[in-house]
Amino acid sequence: SPLKPSARDSVGDKERNPGWTFVNIKVGEEITWTGESGTGWGNPGCWDLGRAPVDTDTVIIPAGCAAYPHLSAGVSVYELRMQGGSTLSLEGFPFEVKKSATVAGTLVCSAKEQISFLGDVDFTGGGFVAADSTVTIAGTKAQTVSLGGLRFNTVVLANTATATFAAGFETKRL
User: Fold this and answer.
1) Longest C-alpha distance within the chain, in Å?
2) With contact defined as beta carbons under 8 Å apart, do 33 and 57 qualify?
3) Which residues pair with 143 in a beta bridge?
């Protein structure tokens, strides 16, 4: 299928720009995975808003989908909410969450992924497939971190304020 160009947060003139889609995206706008058109994170048909997430979105990955997202490039999101039974496969690409992450599903690494959490993190009830990944707690304000007793490959504490760990975890390297 042919690509359809879009302009984010632009004022457009549809009459003089045929074939373009003009969208305005608000910080924290919720976008929910449907998986209706495959597993590609960047596939607009897999998301309820008909577009792929951008770095200002709150991404929701619900339980009960027929297919779950796989990254094909590095991704940054504003907030992440994964429900129990959901999965997100990083496929070797970096992943950043700016505000907060609630991971009741499973975050799957397969290589040397770099995962950065800049806000609160909660893996309570969730899962993590570590591979050779590095998880960095990298906020500039106080963070609450609950890694849910899970096993991680490498955890780096790079918070410039304070990080409070609310639950235990295992790691090969700290």
Assistant:
1) 58
2) no
3) 163
